[in-house]
Structures are given as structure tokens and as C-alpha cells.
From TrEMBL:
Its main location: mitochondrion. Its EC number is 6.2.1.2. It comes from Bugula neritina (Brown bryozoan). It is found in: Mitochondrion. This is medium-chain acyl-CoA ligase. Keywords: ATP-binding, Ligase, Lipid metabolism, Magnesium, Metal-binding, Mitochondrion, Nucleotide-binding.
Length: 573
């Protein structure tokens, strides 16, 4: 494999994107226009050394210093733009500031910050210094934080001032931990002020010459089962691997404004709110709001020139409950969704109301964007799309044998050769690594099938598939059928123990605010009949329970495992 120095490598990618963008596309904004060509020509020429801040961000800052890198909208309504050159300089100053308080290359830092500019500056600064960033969501509890500090062996914690009291309780007996807060006020004893460290730092920084294989981030994956796993990503796997996310799935250029409303602790913000857009020279739009509001989201999409939008399926389900015709989203040309499958009927309503189709992508914290409905391929509604350039994704059985079209099996990614964005394995968990790396494949833990056109179709998490009277039933098909009923906002389908059938389908249903019904039992029967008419009758939910909300991970995935465990415990007790 030919090795290319980092900055030279990114300059090559950047110039290649520019050439492809303008080849026959003088009148079009779209840059990615030939899926088959991209797959055929993709080469994994990973450089020996790579550092995103130096080899990508600074390259763009020099080429287009005044281009907007970050556009931050505060909840109160004020907004501010930061150019590539500004963030480049601020991150150099902060890198010096972090090193001045003892942090060094390879040290691990737990960072829990809201959607503020300091989070993006910190990200760039840690990469420059070779400091390993461990992002955490602002929704973490005291117990969650203690677990992450212990497992990651972090030498520093960086939080917003609102979390100082929580950190003090967690770290009361922990010695040698550097504590840094983001505040405009004076820090309490024992704490350092991040803004002070940044302001006093020199704008000249000697960066760490990080290896491509060197650890850059550690994510604690939310997962739908079990405790969080430490998922490491390197300077190549995320810093370079998400070039494909921005180039192929998001289809971004340096003229685009990308808004991903994910929390900073979720890997999705790396996909669509940091590395993906910045690798293409795009503007990252951020709305610093604490709670998702569908009406406010639509207003922001109307008031600002956002060209590409990404939110979780739950967000879209709430959005389509609004009167979309009220909002004029003239700049919006691309909408994407990830985390779990999005119901086709939601996609229909959104496209009908906005004129913009929603394109799904499939990826995990572990993988990068492995599969998607790219702009330049035909969309098959309900499908996850095709494998991304650089990925050989397939369906295998439990013995690692590739399956024929339409045969359900384990959704797998070939590691021969290994995709750039794929992680190397969970930290300190060889038992789990032995389960997910089988032969020449990484097993995603999802069940799916592939059709004759190489499109993938999601069935469910391996643990979520229901076995009832000899039938295999994927929860997504039942949830999609329920979603088509006007009374349903969202649902989660799990197994319930049954003495005759082994398991039966049970649906936990959240009704929308406009749902009108006089008799709960009659509505349940109506929903059951609706599912029978919409999909194969054997899949209908024999049990239905109405709930106010569904348990979710921080990344927006429905925790069916929690509902399933509760259901089985209640029935068997």
C-alpha cells in the first residue's frame, strides 16, 4: 500500500473532489454523481501519519480563510459565525493551553459540553495535541459519569459550569484529575477555566505528528443492549474515514450549510456535524437548544440558508405532525436520517410537504457510514440503500458464509480489506471482540437481507427478532405498518411470552396529540386490523399497550430490550 503524507493526502482528496464536482456539472450543485465509478475507483491509500486538524482543517483554512466553518445559533435567537481561520487559530491557542496544564499526547479527556463553540474548538485542539477525546452527552447521570471516568482512565474532565457540582461529587476521592470548566465567571478552587487557557495560549502550536493508527476518540456506545462499550476511533478511521460520509452520503460541497441536531456526545455529530462537513469545506450549523421542538426546527430551517439537514427518525416523526406547508425551506435540498430505520409513510409526508426526500444512512459508532441511499442511485423506499464506496457489506450466516439474495442473515462488513472508517475493536473487551469479528467479517449485530440489485433491507437487531409459532418477525415491519395509522406517533414492537406460540408480538404505541378515540379497546382492535391489512396477517400485534413515550438511547434509538425485559418479567412473575 502506497503511503502518502497527511497534508499531501488531503490536498489530493480535496482537489479530486473539486474535479469530480465540476466534471459535467457546471449548472449543478451536486458533487457525487456516479456510484459505480466511485466504488470501482475507491482506494484505501491511508497515510502513515494523519492529523485532521493539520492535514484537513488547516488546509482549508489556508485556501479559504474567510469561509464560515461554524454558524452558531443560540436559543435566545442571537447567532455568530466563525471562519475556518478563526477556529484554526483558537484551537491552536487552546492546544497550547491544554498542554500548559500538563495534558500530553495520549492522555484521555472526558468532555461533556452542550452545543457551544468551545466543544468544536476543543475537538480540534485535542486532535492537534494528540490528546484522546472521550465525548459524553449532557444527559449523563452522576453514575454514568463515574463509569466513564473509571473505564476510560481519563486524566482530565472538561465540562460546562452547570456540571461542576456533579463532577465534584464523582471525583471527591479521585486524585490527580485535571478539572476544567467552560464559564464566563471565576472558577471555584481546584478548577481551571477553559476560556482563560485558550485566551492566554499562543496562536503558534507545535502539533503532534500523530500516526493514522493512533487513538483519537473514545466513544461510549449507547447500544440497545448491555452497558456502554468503549469504542475507539483513530486519526484515520474518523478523521479520514468521514471524508466518505461528507462526500458520498451528505453530498456536500464548500457551498453547503449542514445542520445536524445531534447531541455533542453522540457519534452522529462526528458524522454530520464535524468531520463529514469540514472534510468538504462546508459550514457546520449549530442550534444550541436544550430540547427538540419540531415547530422551532422548521422555523430555523426556514429562516436560515440550511441546505442539508440531519435528525433522528423520532425527530422526523414529530416534524411531520406539523403543518409543513406553513414553512418555506427554500435553501433545503437534502435531508438525511440515521440511528434506526425511518418509516416510509413519514418519508412520504415529509417529501410531500417540503419537496425534499429523506435519504437514509446506515452506520454505527464502530463503522462510519457503511451503507446509504445516495443521491445518485435509485431510492427504494424502506431500504437502507447500497454499500458505501470503500465498504464490502454483505449478508452472512452464523458460520460466516455469504448468503444469496433475499436470504435473511447477519449484516456484516468484510475486513479483508478493512474499511478506513471501521474501528479496530472494543477497548478492554476481548470477549466481545471475539463475538463481533468472525473470520473475515465484522458482524454488526443487525439482521437484514439483500435484494438482487444489491440494496439492503433491515429486519432488526439480532436480539429483537420475534419467533412466533415458527414465524420470524422483524419489529420494523410491524412498526412501519402501525405508523401508517393516523392515530400513531411512534411504536416499539417486542416479543411477549406465550404458552402456545412461544412468543407473540406486542406493540407499545405512542399516540399523536390529535388522536381522537372513545374506547381504548376499540382502538386497539382497529390498529390490529390495520396491521393485518398492511402487512402479512401473522405479524399483527396480538397485544397492544398505549404509553406516553418510549425508552431511547442518547442517540435516539428505541431501547426495545428494556421493553422486552420488562414485558417478560411482568408476564412470568
Amino acid at each position: 500500500m502506497r503511503l502518502i503524507k497527511g497534508a499531501t493526502f488531503h490536498t489530493y482528496l480535496y482537489s479530486l473532489r473539486t474535479r469530480i464536482t465540476h466534471r459535467g456539472y457546471a449548472a449543478s450543485r451536486t458533487g457525487f454523481n456516479d456510484y459505480n465509478q466511485a466504488r470501482e475507483e475507491f482506494k484505501s491509500n491511508v497515510p502513515k501519519s494523519y492529523n485532521f486538524s493539520i492535514d484537513c482543517f488547516d488546509v482549508i483554512a489556508r485556501k479559504k480563510p474567510n469561509s464560515t466553518a461554524l454558524w452558531l445559533l443560540e436559543d435566545a435567537g442571537s447567532d455568530r459565525k466563525y471562519s475556518y481561520s478563526q477556529l484554526s487559530e483558537l484551537s491552536k491557542k487552546l492546544a497550547n493551553g491544554l498542554e500548559s496544564c500538563g495534558l500530553k499526547r495520549g492522555d484521555r479527556v472526558l468532555a461533556i459540553l452542550p452545543r457551544i463553540v468551545e466543544w468544536w474548538i476543543l475537538n480540534l485542539a485535542c486532535i492537534r495535541a494528540g490528546v484522546v477525546l472521550c465525548p459524553g452527552t449532557t444527559l449523563l447521570t452522576q453514575k454514568d459519569i463515574a463509569l466513564r471516568l473509571e473505564k476510560s482512565a481519563a486524566t482530565a474532565v472538561i465540562v460546562h459550569q452547570d456540571l461542576i457540582d456533579v463532577i465534584e461529587k464523582v471525583t471527591s476521592e479521585k486524585r490527580g484529575l485535571t478539572k476544567i470548566c467552560v464559564t464566563n465567571e471565576t472558577c471555584r478552587d481546584g478548577w481551571l477555566n477553559l476560556n482563560f487557557l485558550m485566551n492566554k495560549g499562543s496562536p503558534n502550536h507545535k502539533h503532534a505528528d500523530t500516526l493514522s493508527s493512533e487513538l483519537m476518540h473514545i466513544y461510549f456506545t449507547s447500544g440497545t443492549t448491555g452497558t456502554p462499550k468503549m469504542t475507539p476511533q483513530t486519526h484515520a478511521s474518523y478523521g479520514l474515514g468521514h471524508y466518505g460520509t461528507g462526500r458520498y452520503w451528505l453530498d456536500l460541497t464548500d457551498q453547503d450549510v449542514m445542520w445536524c441536531n445531534a447531541d455533542t456526545g453522540w457519534a452522529k455529530i462526528a458524522y454530520s456535524g464535524t468531520f463529514g462537513p469540514w472534510s468538504q469545506g462546508s459550514t457546520v450549523f449549530v442550534h444550541n437548544t436544550k430540547k427538540f421542538d419540531p415547530e422551532l426546527t422548521l422555523k430555523v430551517l426556514s429562516d436560515y440558508p440550511i441546505t442539508t439537514f440531519c435528525t433522528a427518525p423520532t425527530g422526523y416523526r414529530f416534524i411531520v405532525q406539523q403543518n409543513l406547508e406553513k414553512y418555506k425551506m427554500n435553501a433545503l435540498s437534502h435531508a438525511v436520517s440515521a440511528a434506526e430505520p425511518l418509516n416510509p409513510e413519514v418519508m412520504d409526508i415529509f417529501e410531500s410537504g417540503t419537496g425534499v426526500p429523506i435519504r437514509e444512512g446506515y452506520g454505527q459508532t464502530e463503522t462510519g457510514l457503511a451503507c446509504g441511499t445516495f443521491k445518485c442511485i435509485e431510492t427504494k423506499q424502506g431500504s437502507m440503500g447500497k454499500a458505501s464506496p470503500g465498504f464490502d457489506m454483505c449478508i452472512v450466516d452464523n458460520d460466516g458464509v455469504r448468503q444469496e439474495p433475499y436470504a435473511e442473515g447477519n449484516l456484516a462488513i468484510s475486513i479483508s480489506p478493512r474499511p478506513i472508517a471501521l474501528f479496530s475493536g472494543y477497548l478492554d473487551d476481548e470477549e466481545r471482540n471475539d463475538r463481533v469479528f468472525v473470520g473475515d467479517y465484522y458482524l454488526t449485530g443487525d439482521r437484514a437481507y439483500q435484494d438482487e440489485d444489491e440494496y439492503f433491507w433491515f429486519v432488526g437487531r439480532a436480539d429483537d427478532v420475534i419467533l412466533s409459532a415458527g414465524y420470524r418477525i422483524g419489529p420494523f415491519e410491524v412498526e412501519s405498518a402501525l405508523q401508517e395509522h393516523p392515530a400513531v406517533l411512534e411504536s416499539a414492537v417486542v416479543s411477549s411470552p406465550d404458552s402456545l406460540r412461544g412468543e407473540v408480538v406486542k406493540a407499545f404505541v405512542v399516540l399523536n396529540e390529535q388522536a381522537m378515540y372513545d374506547n381504548e379497546e376499540e382502538l386497539k382492535m382497529e390498529l390490529q386490523d390495520h396491521v393485518k391489512q398492511t402487512t402479512a396477517p401473522y405479524k399483527y400485534p396480538r397485544l397492544i399497550e398505549f404509553v406516553k413515550d418510549l425508552p431511547k438511547t442518547v442517540s435516539g434509538k428505541t431501547r426495545r430490550v428494556e421493553l422486552r425485559e420488562r414485558e417478560w418479567k411482568n408476564i412470568q412473575s
